[in-house]
Amino acid sequence: MSVALVRPSRPPLAASRRRRTLALAVITTLVATLLAAVQAAPAQAAPVLLSQGSTVTASSQENGGTAAGNAVDGNGGTRWSSAFADPQWIRIDLGSPATLSRVELAWEAAHAKSYRIELSTNGNDWTTAYSTTTSAGGNETLTVSGDARYVRLTGTERATGYGYSLWEFKVFGTRGGGGPEIPGGGDLGPNVHVFDPSTPNIQGKVDEIFQQQEEAQFGSGRHALLFKPGTYNNINAQIGFYTQIAGLGLNPNATTFNGDVTVDAGWFNGNATQNFWRSAENLTLNPVNGTNRWAVSQAAPFRRMHVKGGLNLAPDGYGWASGGYIADSKIDGTVGPYSQQQWYTRDSSVGGWTNAVWNMTFSGVQGAPAASYPTPPYTTLDTTPISREKPFLYLDGNEYKVFVPAKRVNARGVSWDGGTQPGESIPLNRFYVVKQGATAATINAALAQGLNLLFTPGVYHIDQTINVNRANTVVLGLGLATIIPDNGVTAMKVADVDGVKLAGFLIDAGPVNSPTLLEVGPQGASADHSANPTSLQDVFVRIGGAGPGKATTSIVVNSDDTIIDHTWVWRADHGEGWGWETNRADYGVRVNGDDVLATGLFVEHFNKYDVEWYGERGRTIFFQNEKAYDAPNQAAIQNGATKGYAAYRVDDSVEQHEGWGMGSYCYYNVDPTIVQEHGFKAPVKPGVKFHNLLVVSLGGNGQYQHVINNIGSPTSGTSTIPSTVTNFP
């Protein structure tokens, strides 16, 4: 979203030797020939650990604390153990074929006396790579050979009366045709700025970056400001476009500012509706005047923050603002949204909340106002049904790691207060640290090698799809890292596997039309991921604005149980390279998977449907939308006999769906006479339910006839008053 009512204008190696004898000449020639042969041999990849974090299944488990996944979690203190019977098996799916070289087993006292290591390319046909009938347990290193995707240990005779019990089951090998090894870890590149309390002139450096980024709405600069644990005095970190500020502690209270992290709108004459693409996370603030200002609109998350005071979400002067998102944060004082049109807060704690304009939605928030829609328009759910917080970078001593929080069910309040947070720490050496200039081929080779991805701040042009095929892969961006597909490819595809985490990056459509920009699961995906879903968090999409861009559909979710946690999918309405056909993008988000949950879904300005939902049992908590400003006339948006395409459409085949706190706005400024039939369309069935819907005509630029289907009063006039429906059907 850009404005509430009116669009303001935009500012050979060679060597010479003397031959002494014929014999010496012959020997020299022989040696040179041999050396040339050695140098010409292709580099061979060293075997790497392939199994860690992979999908694992087993014939049985002793109890709830001895799951199969414990054998590949990299933690020597957790184990898989089976039932007390023979035979038993544990199977690892490596995600893609690999050339295997060894297996390492770390047995608990209850080990196997007789077992086999078996390999398979398809999970059905097995060959034995190793077998023994005299194992003594302990730590075993086994040489194996073969190409396989699946590795199975089958125990045929136990050494004790207990089951089979493994601390770790490690599989080593190579992928990708034996190319050179891609190293994990390394430095974080020139656009990650790391501070500690003794760093000189912190304020000066932060101000320098803000001056570069304050008005750079479509610029190429990307920055991450990372603060080591400690206390920082007299800091006012103003945060501009494409800037991330974060603490490097495992807990927000480890990094404290006696000062502020500020977003205001002075650059845009007090209008905050274009304060996009920035973030704050994992810090504790003691605001100088008692209240911190975070006056943002879309794609500006405030995560994992502790504000020991109040939080003001409006710009100085209380100009327009169109946010926003808070998660896993604790605000000791009162949150004042003031002029904010809408806001979503999840799994947090607030000391109070002052007001609402059109749509304030809360789930799992301690201290949230009571539900009272539409007067005032508060939508309040006591808990969030499923959530998993965003992965984040932190320092463990002097070693960088990424913490991946565990999934929560029926969450309420922050995840980090009052004890150790459940989750997994992954060392940086298990990430390919992506820096500017990296190619898609190298990125894919790193993924195939079993590495996760950490995109450092920058803009990455790719000429082939980034394929995430391994379960539990983490793809984490710093500083709003941006991926641009140059030749019409899909920027990223995720296989139908468990537990992939995508977080913290922007996909920007290229000038050649892409059929899709992000696909989660292939068409027809059907695996059950309820125990370990894939998640998208702070994953943003843009079509146009920074230059011409086109994509038919931005995000397609085929995998069941996916969590979409805060995304802004935006077809540009200003900047460069925009216009009804210039940045053509018919569909925003299409959900085909079952049991998909969206928490904080922002989708705007698409030529046809902004959101289409085909999967069963889908749920959306908070939706914000504007229809495309630039429709040239009524005919351009006509949908058969229907006037316009709904912002959010549930397919007629769906039996169960539910949504809370959802709004659609129109601002047809090219042709203000355009009429939109409705903002929402859904089948009338007992299992399809909506709560607290609204549509708004901004200043009378276009009108809605209904809210959902043919239900709800029409909007009218220029007074920008919502039409609401509290419950459907």
UniProtKB/TrEMBL annotation:
InterPro entries tied to this protein: FA58C, Galactose-bd-like_sf, Pectin_lyas_fold, Pectin_lyase_fold/virulence, SACTE_4363
Keyword Iron-sulfur recorded: no
Ranges where the F5/8 type C domain occurs: 43-174
Region annotation (Disordered) ranges: 57-76
UniProt keyword Metal-binding present: no
PROSITE patterns according to UniProt: FA58C_3
Signal peptide boundaries: 1-45
Alphabetized UniProt keyword annotations: Signal
Protein name: F5/8 type C domain-containing protein
Organism for this UniProt entry: Streptomyces griseus subsp. griseus (strain JCM 4626 / CBS 651.72 / NBRC 13350 / KCC S-0626 / ISP 5235)
